[in-house]
Amino acid sequence: MNRPARILVLIVLFGTSLQARVQKDVAQLGALEVPPVEADNNSSRPEDTNATVPFSLDYMSQQLLEQQAMIHQLQTEMTAKDQEIENEMQQLQAEIAAKDQTIQALQQQTQALEQRPYIERCESGVVGIPAYALSSGSGTRYRDLTATFRARFRKTPVVTIGLKTLDSSSYTRLDASVRYVYASHMTVRISTWSSSGLHSASVYWMACA
User: Fold this and answer.
1) Is 63 part of any domain?
2) Is the pLDDT confidence value at 158 over 90?
3) What residues have CB less than 8 Å from 146, skipping those under 6 apart?
4) How many structural domains does the chain have?
5) Cβ neighbours, 10 Å, residue 176
6) How far is CA 169 from its chain centroid?
7) How far, CA to CA in Å, does 46 sit from each of 43, 51, 204?
8) What is the pLDDT of residue 209?
9) What is the structure's pLDDT at 37?
10) Is residue 7 part of a domain?
């Protein structure tokens, strides 16, 4: 047998074997019971995107209650904090008011001290008439006696005088008075009248300013 005839025989044999195998497989498939396929009634419906709910209503309600409780707690804390701040502000205002009253009282005391006359220093001494200067004569007779201060006062001083010595004849009559006062000196007048005679007289003086 030549080569072409041999190839033809092989093709025929292979085809016959393949056909027999296919028929066998078909027979086996026919022996199987295939369940009927039910029609999909929902195949024609559009896809429902909201069909799946990720959270249940109870879960969402629980979350809402928890959030409301948290908000209520925050509001309570904020109210307490506001009350605390308000109390602190009231306390500070009370302290400021008390300090203002203290300052006003000190200012009033300072003004009173500034307005009140105060004594910086005092000087004192004695002035008197010469012996027998007013021992004779009649009527009103006097001598003006000037005392010069050791240092000039910052303002006109207040002068007080008092009797130190007196020598006179019968019917003693004596008057001593401050006539002039300046920051640097003052004048005291000693006088008598009628028929009285003063053999000697002197007075203390004190000047303060």
Assistant:
1) no
2) yes
3) 127, 185, 186, 187, 188
4) 1
5) 21
6) 80
7) 8, 12, 132
8) 92
9) 47
10) no
Q: Which domain holds residue 201?
A: 122-208
Q: How far is CA 143 from CA 134, 138, 182, in A?
A: 8, 14, 19
Instruction: Answer whether residue 44 is part of any domain.
Output: no
DSSP bridge partners of 165: 202
> CB neighbours of 175 closer than 8 A, spacing ≥ 6?
142, 189, 190, 191, 192, 193
Average pLDDT, the chain: 81
Asked, for residue 142, whether it belongs to a domain, the answer is yes
CATH at 204: 2.60.40.2080
pLDDT digits (tens, 9 = 90+) for 7-41: 555 555 555 555 565 556 545 545 544 445 454 55
- Higher pLDDT among residues 45 and 65, named by residue: 65
Q: Which two structure tokens, joined as six digits, stand for 98?
A: 């008390």
- 187, exposed or middle or buried, with CB in 10 Å at 0-12, 13-18, 19+? middle
Q: Please give the backbone phi and psi of residue 147, each rounded to the nearest 5 degrees, phi first.
A: -120, 125
Is the Cβ–Cβ distance between 163 and 176 less than 8 Å? yes
Query: Which residue is associated with the tokens 């005092």?
Result: 122
pLDDT computed for residue 208 by the predictor: 95
User: What predicted TM-score, i.e. pTM, was given to this entire model?
Assistant: 0.46
Per residue in 125-146, pLDDT (tens digit) is: 999 999 999 999 999 999 999 9
